Amino acid sequence: MYTTTMRTAFVLLILSVLIVTGKSAPTFELFECRSGQEFISNECNQCYCLNNGELVCQIQECVNKKFKNLENCRTGTVWRNNCNKCWCINSGTICTNNRCF
């Protein structure tokens, strides 16, 4: 059984680790597809948004461990990958497809 003191200590420990490592807790945001935007799905398939807000993607066979990990993300999670913004949606990871210099 956890006491209030133990819970507080655990929360402070987690916050300290996040601060020291420079990592922040994941944020959550719904993905919104705007007409004309281009994305990449699971670092494999090119995607774009239709006028009605629907996301359409190429369907290529993407078979590797990294692809499977990207498919199994927590829906709603948002993060940065270099200069691109990524979202976890029902079908996996979708990221803006900007060239990072």
Provide a short characterization of the protein structure:
This protein has helices at 4-21, 65-71, and strands spanning 27-28, 38-41, 45-49, 55-57, 77-81, 84-89, 92-96. The chain is an alpha+beta fold.
Characterization of the model:
Keywords: Signal. It comes from Aquatica leii. Residues 1-24 form the signal peptide. The protein has one domain. 25% of the residues lie in helices and 30% in strands. It is built from 2 helices and 7 strands, in the order αββββαβββ. It has helices at 4-21, 65-71; strands spanning 27-28, 38-41, 45-49, 55-57, 77-81, 84-89, 92-96. The protein has a 7-stranded antiparallel β-sheet, with no helix packed on it. A hairpin with a 2-residue loop joins strand 5 and strand 6. Mean pLDDT is 76; it is low at 8-24.
Topology, please?
Elements: H1 4-21, E1 27-28, E2 38-41, E3 45-49, E4 55-57, H2 65-71, E5 77-81, E6 84-89, E7 92-96
Antiparallel strand pairs: 1-5, 2-3, 2-7, 3-4, 5-6, 6-7
